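Structure representation:
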Amino acid sequence: MGRTHEAIDPRLTAWLTSQPVFFVATAPLAGDGHVNCSPKGNRGEFAVIGQDRVAYIDQTGSGTETIAHLQENARIVVMFCAFTGPPRIVRLHGRGRAVLVDDPDFQELALSFPRPMTVGVRAVIEVEVTRIADSCGYGVPLMDFAGHRPNMEEWSNRKGTDGIRAYWVDKNGTSIDGLAGVPPPG
C-alpha cells in the first residue's frame, strides 16, 4: 500500500498540481506548543519547481503559525488527498522557508506560478522535499468539488496593499505560542 518515491516525477507533478486542496502542517520545537494544520485552496497556487522542491502561495491569514514555525525550525509536511478518482494520499515532508513579499527572492519564486500574485499574498512557502510518501487513501471520502471561494481576494482587495500590511502588523506579528511571525514592513 504505502511507498516512498525518490523524486517528484512528471506524473506525480500532474497529480499534485491538479488537486483543488492541500494541507500544510508545522509545529514549534516546544513540547507544549501548538501543532498547526492549514487547508490551502489550489487555483494554481501550488508549484513543483524541481524533483525535490515545491512551493505554494501563502495568502494572508488570521494567524501566522506556518511562517513562525518555519522561521524557528523549518519542519513542514504538505499533504494531498484524492477526493475524486482512485484513492490516494501523498505527503511531502521537508524543510521549508517563508519568502515574504519584500524578500529579494520573492519575485523570482512568484514566476513559478501560473496566476499573478494578488494583494493578499504575504509569502511564497518554498519546501526542499526530503521524503515523498504515498499511501492508500481508502479512508478519504469521495466528495464533489463545487469551486473555490472568492472571499480571500475580495477581502484583501477591499483592504488594499496598505490595509493588508497594517493587518500583518496587527494580526501576524507573532504566533499563538509567541514565536516571531511576519516582521513589520520596512
Summary: Residues 151-171 form the longest helix (21 residues). The mean pLDDT is 96. The chain is about 25% helix and 35% strand. The chain has one domain: 3-171.
